[in-house]
Amino acid sequence: xxxxxxxxxxxxxxxxxxxxxxxxxxxxxxxxxxxxxxxxxxxxxxxxxxxxxxxxxxxxxxxxxxxxxxxxxxxxxxxxxxxxxxxxxxxxxxxxxxxxxxxxxxxxxxxxxxxxxxxxxxxxxxxxxxxxxxxxxxxxxxxxxxxxxxxxxxxxxxxxxxxxxxxxxxxxxxxxxxxxxxxxxxxxxxxxxxxxxxxxxxxxxxxxxxxxxxxxxxxxxxxxxxxxxxxxxxxxxxxxxxxxxxxxxxxxxxxxxxxxxxxxxxxxxxxxxxxxxxxxxxxxxxxxxxxxxxxxxxxxxxxxxxxxxxxxxxxxxxxx
Length: 320
Hints:
Layout: H1 5-37, H2 44-81, H3 85-88, H4 91-100, H5 102-122, H6 127-142, H7 155-192, H8 195-230, H9 234-239, H10 241-267, H11 278-308, H12 315-318
């Protein structure tokens, strides 16, 4: 495999985006199960169905995160060394990347967290094990902050940037990742059309809506901090490629907010209608559709984030 510098650069964008999406869905699905869904179940049968569904999502996304993470390391080695990918895959180059760089140190920590998480998923019968799984998944997503621009910002601004980026990643996982589990739960509720599942769908959507509202507020606040550090001025936001991509990201985020508002204030109250009636089933279908659209918009944002991490921040334009 002999990819050149440009091919490595483009591949890194794709792999980073895939890795971010997988880690986000992984953490969000576990948060959704532990914090949102589990406390409201009234029967063991309902709990078992959703728990197994959550485990299935978690195993799949963990596998994708691990595979994409390995590819990311190989591509990063080629990028750091300036060698074609085939020449960079040597013991000396890989050892230098893993053992002598911040990226490698973060990689080692995330590898340990992935092992702990896999063990928790395999033995998730105990409640404390489930909370350990959530903590490991959050650590896996939060550590990504040290692989991007926040990890290279110096001084007190660097500490503020890292804090904001960690919180930004965690709350993005809570919202976007949790949406995936919500869609699957709504699909189950539509399939069964029973009073118990209608209750579960209503309570779960209400609880998740509240959590999503908190997450959105935190995403906005931390996003403002990140933009202030990385962009610096309205002029840089407009004239740089980084700034224009950031504005596209904000436009997609605004579209997600509109879908979320429709879900919370229009569709969720309709789930309280009599079970199995036409309006309730229609609300379930529309709620699921809107949530899928939110997920698609979120995945598009991950693609932009993958690209933004490979560009020089817009603030460098003002410093030229």
